[in-house]
Structures are given as C-alpha cells and as structure tokens.
Amino acid sequence: MCGIVGYVGKQNATDVLIDGLRKLEYRGYDSAGIAVFENHKIVIEKAKGRLDNLEQKMEETHRPTGHCGIGHTRWATHGEPSDVNSHPHGNERVTIVHNGIIENYQQLKEKLEHRGYSFLSETDTESVAKLLDYYYSGDPIETLQKVISAIQGSYALGVMFKDNPGTIYAIRKESPLIVGVGKGENFIASDVPAIIKYTKDYYLLDENEIAVLTQDSVHVYDLDGEEIQKELHTANWDVEAAEKGGYPHFMIKEIHEQPSAFRNTVSPRIIDGLPDLQLENLSDEQLKTIERIHIVACGTAMHAGMVGKYVIEEMARIPVDVDVASEFRYRNPILGKNDLVVIISQSGETADTLAALRLAKQQGVPTLAIVNVVGSSIAREADSVCYTWAGPEIAVASTKAYMVQLSVMYLLAAKFSQLKGTLSENEVRSFCGKLMEIPDLLETVLEQADNCQYFASKFQNARDLFFIGRGVDYSLSLEGSLKLKEISYIHSEAYAAGELKHGTISLITDEVPVVAIATQQALYEKMISNVKEVKARGAKVLLICREDAPEQKDITSYQLRIPLVDDILMPLLTTVPLQLFAYYTAVLRGCDVDKPRNLAKSVTVE
Ligand code: M6R
C-alpha cells in the first residue's frame, strides 16, 4: 500500500524518483508525487492518477531539477484519489511522504487546528506533516523523536526539512522501508526493486530508528539519539528480475518463471533425497511433537494454505486448520502447547497476517513464516523462517509466489510424514524425487498457453462464472476464481461441486459458464455427475482433468488435460492453466493486468 522512494546524490533526483516510483507502482497507483530540493527550496509536484499523469503534468508545467528528493505513489485510504490528497504533504519548512495509516490523526488534527493550523487534504498524513512543523525546533532528530511518540498507527515516512537541503530523514513502524547504500548516493525505498538499478546494498530500518541520509553518509539513530551500527544486506537478484524482460506484462513473465522459482525453492531443501527445511529455531525434535497446525494467511497465500491442509493431513495425518488472518486475529483462537502456527505471506508485510503472527507469539506457540521478501517484518518476527525463492513478484496478482508457497507445503508434508513415520523413508524419498520432476512438467503445462487463450476468448464476455471442484481441486477453484475476479473483473464464484445443489445451482444458466476442475481420480465420477448437473442447466463447461481421463465431449464444451502425476501433486500443475486463463481473459477484456483497479500488491493496512 503506497510506495516511497527517496534519493540524494549527484544524479537528477526527479529522474531517479520517477524511475523508482515506476518500480513501486504495484504498491498503489491512484496518484503520485515528488518533492525535490531546488534552489534551496522544496518544490512539490503531484497529480491524481498513474505516474504517467505526473510525468505529463511536469512536462507541461515544471520538472524540478535538484539532487535530493522524496517521492510517493498512493493507494488511497483517507480521502479519495485527488491532486490535493496526493503526497508529498507539508509546507515550505517540512515535507513528507507516508505509507501506512495514522490512527490518531483526528485527535492530532483537532489539536493542531486549535493551534492555528489549517488542513487542505482529507488525509491522515497531513496531520503528521503539520505535527512535524509544530514540533520543529531546528533539530530534525529531536523533532522526529517527538513525532514518533505522538503518532499511533503504522507508518513509513520520508521527510525533508528546508533547513537541511541535501538530507533525507526516514522512520518506520509496521510499514516497510529500506535504506539503499550507494557510492556517492543513497536512497530510501519501500522495496528493493526501486533501488536495484543503482545499488544492491541496503539496510533494513527497524522500528523506532531514525535514518539520516546525505549523498556521502547514512547514519541511523535510536530513539535516544544513540547511533546504531546496521547490518548491510545485499539483494541476491539483479535488475532484470524487476523488469518485464520482453513480456507484455509482469504477470505473464512471472507465470513463466514458475519452473525456476519452484526449482530454486525446493532443490536446496532436498538433501540426499530427503526433505531438509533447515529451519532455525525449529528442530526436528520440536517438529515431531507437533499435534496440530494452524495455517494463517490472506488471499492467495491462504489458498496455498488450503492446499497445504489437504496435503499435510493426507500424508502426515496431522490436523491442520486454515484461517484468514483478519478472522484469526479477532476470533480468540484456541492454540495448544503442541501446536505450530504457520504464517504464509509473499510480501511479509500484510498487516492482518503480521498481527496474527504476533498473536500466536504472545500465546507462546512456535511460529514458522513462509515468506518471499527477505528481511520483511513477518520474516523478522517469526520464530523460524522458510524463504521462498521466487524473486521479486511485481504483478499485483500473485502467481509464482503461490507456486513456491505450494512447494513449501509439500516439503512440510514430506518432512512431517518422515518425522511422524506415516511414510517410510523410501516413500518420502520417492515423493521428493517426484517433487524434483515438477519444474519440467510445469514447462510442459506452460505450452498450453495458446489453449488457455482460446478458452479465455470463449468466456471473456461472461458476466458471471463458476469454478467448481472437490477436495484439493476445490482449493484450486478458489484460487482460479480469485485470479479471474482480481484482474478481469468478471464476477466469479468458487464452489465445492457437491454443495452446488444446496442452493447455488439456481444461478446456473446458459449465460454462466463453469470451469470444472476434476484432477482427483477418486472424485472424478462424482465431479462428472456435477458437470452433468450444470450442463443440464445450460452451462458451457471447461473441464480441467488428467491427461488419461475419459473423453467427455457430450457434456463439456472444452477440455484441458494436465500431464500425469500422483493425484496429490496435481495442484502444482493445475494452477498454471487457471492463471493463464485469468491472464488472457483480462488481456482480451482490455484490463490493466498488472495493476488491477482498487488493489495494491502489499496490504499493509487492516
Ligand atoms: O503478501 P501476501 O502474500 O501476504 O499477500 C496476501 C494477499 O494480499 C495476496 O495473496 C492477494 O490475495 C493477491 N493479490 C492475490 O493475487
């Protein structure tokens, strides 16, 4: 939610800020703005809409020149997207960009209004800008210390004081912010892609730390003003990973990156043919004692957890609950002393998921985070982390991150089966061998892209669409449906196929197509009965089934066949055509695939 970038160095700050914001646009894109020191003044330019609007506005009016500035791309929380609500906020003395939510902004605003301040925007951010001005004593660090103790909520802030040209200040709480360290130039950013073109080295700013950047130095202080020595991190991917690399959209590029993402995540964790997750602070002895697992996540990550439930229960016979994080955190969950809480998050910053993690920790339950972004809040706070090595996922719709989250579910299932003895060592070895074959099979499934495009062309005009499945295929239906809704704006529902006739089948007509997922041999005939039911109501059916499934030409309009693997591994392959189907439908409908309306990649507010 919202992207922040800041630059100080020798380059043209406007160019670097716009370039960085372009890489962060996935975090929010309803308005954008920059503030740059120009001739000893802070010059602000901002515009409603995409970054292109800001660029165009600056072309027509004024494009600041200077070497130090901060920028922002917004996902509106308080106040509609508009020029005035866009960031930066502030006045000629102090200017800020903000990601997060200031919970006590109303109280702050009232207090400041009594002291003569007037507010222009509807944002929570403006109260911080005014508060900074109110507290400003000529000493930026002292001012920031006061502000930190006065504001409540979540924030990453980039700040410039007019009295300190060539210096950027930054603080954060519950919203991500890194400090990029270059040669003769330094940066702040919400995420690594914004700075990777310039430097791979960065510090992770911790809560209650104050970063001070000039072109030649970075200093970080604690709340008492004591300087802190920070650990320097180096990104292990390069600039190409954050570019489209010839693909028309990040989403399709990321779909095609799934074989290598899977390989990178799984191969290092299969040692001598057996699963080895190398979990710090979570020994095999501890894992052996686990009697119940709670998987907590949001959206697509939660859907990965649903597949995890199926696979872990099936293989290791450990009961698994799956919760949406926003529900888990407020429902007073019952957590036992032999339980494990598994948190799944691509970004590692999702507010509800982070809160769920903290709740589990408060109750003294061991926590394992499955996270894609190195050094993210969830990764840092969980007892143990298993990083998924998908590389940066830029498209708002999650694809390769889901794939690697699934892969870790399978590794966990294999590990628990081995530890609990529900599978013999040979069986675990054989399973791991089959996991290692998945990347090649994914390549084969990707060859079905043209078919998926064809099916998309047939269904693109639907107003409503159903995905149905049974067992683990039902979890896939949920993900297929979410993907389609998210990027194509077609209303779709996922239904457990056997549940349709308990009410919802009344919605099926010849105008409501159905995607039926039937990859599980034990449930195939049951699924075919459900397909017949919807066909009898006029629905056009796309059947997704195993390669060796019988022809069903009389009851289905289209069929898509998945290469043969054990039923339990089918989700890994079946996911791909669902992603491709959603992608091509969105493209054919002229949607903005990578930046769907109303959404942002990283949901750092609850
Ligand atoms: O970063 P996270 O994995 O915690 O994000 C969770 C969801 O917001 C995310 O998976 C969302 O549902 C995706 N945009 C769906 O494609």
TrEMBL record:
Is Transferase tagged as a keyword? yes
Q: Where in the cell is it found?
A: Cytoplasm
- Using the record for this protein, list the coiled-coil segments as residue ranges, or answer none: 37-64
Q: Which residues of this protein are catalytic?
A: C2, K601
Please list the residue ranges annotated as the Glutamine amidotransferase type-2 domain.
Answer: 2-216
Q: What is its EC number?
A: 2.6.1.16
Q: Known catalysed reaction(s)?
A: D-fructose 6-phosphate + L-glutamine = D-glucosamine 6-phosphate + L-glutamate
Q: Which InterPro entries match?
A: GATase_2_dom, GFAT, GFAT_N, GlmS/AgaS_SIS, GlmS/FrlB_SIS, Ntn_hydrolases_N, SIS_dom, SIS_dom_sf
- Keywords, sorted A to Z: Aminotransferase, Coiled coil, Cytoplasm, Glutamine amidotransferase, Repeat, Transferase
Tell me if Transferase is a UniProt keyword of this record: yes
Q: Which GO terms describe its molecular function?
A: glutamine-fructose-6-phosphate transaminase (isomerizing) activity
EC class of this enzyme?
Answer: transferase
SIS domain span: 283-422, 455-596
Summary of subunit composition and partner proteins: Homodimer.
Question: NCBIfam families this protein is in?
Answer: glmS (TIGR01135), PRK00331.1 (NF001484)
Please describe what this protein does. Catalyzes the first step in hexosamine metabolism, converting fructose-6P into glucosamine-6P using glutamine as a nitrogen source.
Recorded protein name is Glutamine--fructose-6-phosphate aminotransferase [isomerizing]
